[in-house]
Amino acid sequence: MPGRRPGRAVSALALWFAASLHGEVKVLKNFTLIDGSGRPPLKGASLIIDNGRIQWVGPAAQLKTPASAETIDLTGKYVMPGLINLHGHIGNTLGLTQDARFFTRESIEKNLRTYASYGVTTVLSMGTDQDLIFKVRDEQRGGRPSMTRVFTAGQGFVYQGGYGGLAGVTPGVATVEEVEPAVAALAAKKVDVVKLWLDDHLHHQKKMPYDIAKAIIDSAHRHQLPVVAHIFYLDDAKELVNYGVNGLAHTVRDKPVDRELIASMRKHGTRQMAATLTREASMFIYASTPPFADDPFFTRAVPSNVVQTLKSPEYQKTIAQDPDFPEYRGFFENAKRNLKMLADAGVPYAFGTDSGPPGRFPGYFEHWELELMVEAGLTPMQAISAATNQAAQFLKAKDLGTLERSKWADLIVLDRDPLANIRNTRTIQAVYIAGNQIH
Question: What is this structure's pTM?
């Protein structure tokens, strides 16, 4: 007997080692699959997940369940890829206050867990991050994340003393000569994209000069980094697209897009990476009690004191007293029309919300964005594809965005069909990231 114990120990160690190599195997079966590619849904589908990745996907009739796999019967359910938000801001907001001093690992992870609970399994944080974000991101990429995957622009570019960014994080550039060393510093941190703000906040603040914006784009491209831009005005969008900007982080909002911009975006392959319709709606919706204030899908992730503030006449009065308030609804309608025009014209587009700052609530806003995209004239399938496959393509994240063999099993299980009604993306029964269910 004493002689057998080492053998048993070795055997147990070998089993543990084999498990660590191959990971647990899960089988999800008997659901309707919306795979994110834009293809028609597949009824009676199944998939096999091994070590967080999709090993096989297809009709349940062809399923060969591996021995010892955990099998989950999803009869009557719908499965789609996790949402990918290409415009978020992580870790700087507490309640209805935004401040760089809030940026801690705890606040970052709280945001990422909130996103995950809503089925937003990837987010691109757009230019208001401190260097801690790179540690969080790199830890995720070294294994299997247990919360929403984060991509980052690090510290974005604003014009010194001008509009954009976040105090204490984005100090600003004043000359063309300052651009190259600043871009090189971001490249050394391995940012996923470079972000710039080109806006004057309705003529209330200074705007970045075009020569600085062009220098940022040219320098980033020399470092093999894509560039995304916050824009508001049609003329600025045209200028940056001609400079080769890779993505517009908002739609044009001051006027309708025209054939010149559309032709230039198609020529240069510039993506309307985010419409941020919810951002535009948030500029006026809090002048009265918002329709979602008592929606359990909203309130489950929002502190009760924040909900009460949103309902308070005092807070609503401050929103309505903004001198530019009368214009905000018009900008929102322009944004919707412009998204539809770009989509119809064949300009590539994806999905983003600008969630994270005060009043733009992570998780809920992504589902509201899908609804507003459909209100703008897109089909539910177009909206879902924008928020999954198209968003992953912009990030060049080949392992994400669709539910196909070898890709990460980042997915949402729904009780009802989102193609029948886009609001059904809110009927979340389960969320998986890298094959593990999020609790």
Answer: 0.94
